[in-house]
Amino acid sequence: MKRYKILLVAFAFLGTSHLAISQLLQNKNQFTRQDTLRGSITPERVWWDLVRYDLDVKVEPEKKFISGSNTVTYKVLESQQVMQIDLQEPMKITRVLGNNKELSVIKEGNAHFITLEKEQNAGAKNSIQIFFEGNPRQAKNAPWDGGFSWKKDRNGNHFIATSNQGLGASVWWPCKDHMYDEPETGMTIAITIPQGLTAVANGRLTDESSKDDGTKTFVWLVENPINNYGVNINIGDYANFSEVYEGEKGVLDMNYYVLKDNLEKAKEHFKDAPKMMKAFEHWFGPYPFYEDSFKLVEVPYLGMEHQSSVTYGNQYMNGYLGSDLSGSGWGMKFDFIIIHESGHEWFANNITNKDIADMWIHESFTAYSESLFLDYHYGKNAASEYVIGTRRSIRNDRPLIGDYDVNHEGSGDMYYKGANLLHTLRTITNDDKKWREILRGLNSEFYHQTVTTAQIENYIADKMGLDLKPVFDQYLRNVRIPVLEYAMVKKKMHYRWTNVIDGFEMPIQILIDGKSKWITPSTKIQKLRLPSKESEFDTVEDFYVEYKKSGKLN
Ligand SMILES: [Zn+2]
């Protein structure tokens, strides 16, 4: 998600570039101890491995109040006694139980250090139950500035949703709020709400029960590992419809929860969902969560990649709220939120970054998935025009990779600069069958895992059989775009890369008199023999590079 924020920032940036740059420079050294507690694998996190969450939460819309407990089951990796659990103010942990005994908790900002009853033995599986309550932070501009959205539908019914990417799940429930660890056997999410409304979370609905006090509890079961920010609850006056999809891994039930008034509109508009599944299973391999079904759930904000319950608020329009981000026309052929947020099931939910600094793994591949959706349904030319069109939003302001261990994201260029990097790599591969194998291979090699950027970079380089280190360093860790500088000198073309990091080398296809020619420029001048003195040079736009014609190279 996050696309809209980027546009806003982009516009703000034009007006206040000096301010933005000085803030950026300051940010370099402005991380706090709280950022480190949130963003690093602290000694109080590293010794235990998440096995399961059982989250039980009561939502009281009139009071905008939530309360409940989370039972955290974990495996002991090293013998330790103090465990870090995160919950952000103004939410409160009221007590923690381990073996039915109350445990001591020392709070440091959002981090809570819980002293367990006794030294934990390596290999043991234990659990603690954390009780919490409070009026959670309200989302100011969901999903970018997240928290709880307490809205009403046009009939006056409560319409409530959570969103917390970046901010962290600990904005509303207590958890190990770091991306590197996921509960390997999944979780349950039990939601108690006033009767008359429906609560939808991740996974499958396994139980519904009403109580005499006017409340109803919905229990949702997630069988697969899930990232923290993917966990969500949505409450509304929902209607439900479903379809069966014959996918690569068998039968997949696709379920749709929409406001009752929108049911007929949704039945027509959500035809993009099976089209999405078809395209992405082709390019990326089987949908990664058959056990948990696939859902689209209408929410009162734009949308988010919540695992197996992708949230939707694109107003039943094609494009991004009715506009084409690429300017090519192709962006109006699909509903941006259905395609983009679902693309994250493969890149973000299946393959998840260990550190949010590597969030390009989520957004670059998913932004690129928009063009692969077009490729599958409208052909390669459409895909190419779309991804090239999105270059207009690239700012080259700062690197795609952020700072590690402090919960810091890289530049918003992780969307379309990243997508264009991938499109460039596909063009270099010059073999779509192989390229598809790489994309599918990533999803099977790193199935249900959290990864580092090095793992992804090395996998692609290995499969492409190229040293791509300079290419990834250039595009992910630097803001300069390579310039192919060339000069036509008699019957020769002189050429080299400029505006690049030391040792940059990347193959590129050019056209000489309209004919394809592959060269591998470096920062040193090289020469290519031309058919004639009048030979003409032309570019292949699929490469995200720039060109400069010079009289002579020095
Ligand atoms: Zn996204």
Structural commentary:
- The protein is an alpha+beta fold and 554 residues long.
- Helices cover 25% and strands 31% of the residues.
- It contains 13 helices and 29 strands.
- The chain has an 8-stranded mixed beta sheet. It has a 5-stranded mixed beta sheet with strand order 16-17-18-20-19, with helices on one face.
- Strand 9 (147-152) and strand 10 (158-163) form a beta hairpin.
- The site of zinc ion has 6 residues, from helix 8.
List keywords for this structure.
554 residues, alpha+beta, eight-stranded mixed sheet, 13 helices, 29 strands, globular, binds zinc ion
Give unreliable regions as ranges: 2-26
Q: List bound small molecules.
A: zinc ion
Instruction: Give the CA-CA distance, first to last residue.
Output: 45 Å
What is the average per-residue confidence, as pLDDT, rounded to a whole number?
95
Number of H/I helices:
13
Task: Please estimate the helix content.
Answer: 25-40%
List the helices and strands and how they pair.
Layout: H1 3-15, H2 17-27, H3 33-39, H4 43-46, E1 48-60, E2 65-76, E3 82-86, E4 92-98, E5 101-102, E6 104-108, E7 111-115, E8 125-134, E9 147-152, E10 158-163, E11 187-194, E12 198-200, E13 204-210, E14 215-222, E15 234-236, E16 238-247, E17 250-259, H5 263-269, H6 272-284, E18 294-298, E19 303-304, E20 310-312, H7 336-343, E21 351-353, H8 360-378, H9 380-389, H10 416-429, H11 432-445, E22 449-451, H12 453-464, H13 469-476, E23 483-489, E24 492-498, E25 508-512, E26 515-519, E27 526-529, E28 537-539, E29 546-549
Parallel strand pairs: 1-11, 17-18, 18-20, 21-22, 23-29
Antiparallel strand pairs: 1-2, 2-8, 3-7, 4-5, 4-8, 6-7, 9-10, 10-15, 11-14, 12-15, 13-14, 16-17, 19-20, 23-24, 24-27, 25-26, 25-28
Helix pairs in contact: 6-7, 6-8, 7-8, 8-9, 8-10, 11-12
Bound molecules: zinc ion (ZN).
